[in-house]
Specification:
The protein contains three helices and seven strands, in the order H-H-H-E-E-E-E-E-E-E. With 133 residues, it is α+β, with helices and mostly antiparallel strands.
Length: 133
């Protein structure tokens, strides 16, 4: 790793407010609050976005931002992996090999009740972050 990459990685935000500013995503904290509501108080009968923001858990602790992740998944239609297991790397780098940014696209399940690709949306990955709890 060269020193330029090290400097870029160290400049990542260290809390959610900093990440909102870095990514220019003012809605990110509200989305995180609704996500935490869903994870902590899962109720299939209610949409977490129906819960007022002041009733949702707020996270204002430290975070770690990562430039890539490894996703392991089971693909029963493709037997080429060990027991159909596969590994895919997803990148979200602000600077890659001094050639500019590199942001992968991913499929996101947006409607679990629809079968196949009709229940998926394509998303552009801006970053990966980990809440330090």
């Amino acid at each position: 790793m060269n020193s330029n990459q090290l400097i870029l990685e160290c400049k990542h935000a260290r809390n959610m407010q900093g990440l909102v500013i870095e990514l220019s995503t003012p809605w990110l904290i509200d989305t995180l609050c609704h996500f935490l509501q869903l994870q902590l108080y899962c109720d299939d009968n209610h949409d977490p976005e129906d819960v007022p923001l002041d009733k949702c858990p707020l996270y204002d602790g430290p975070i770690h931002v990562y430039n890539s992740v490894c996703s392991m998944f089971y693909a029963p239609s493709d037997m080429s992996g060990i027991h159909s297991m596969h590994c895919e790397y997803i990148c979200s780098c602000p600077e890659r090999r001094n050639m500019g940014p590199h942001y992968n696209c991913v499929y996101v399940v947006t409607d679990p009740h629809v079968e196949g690709v009709l229940g998926l949306d394509v998303a552009h990955v801006l970053c990966f972050f980990h809440l330090i709890i």
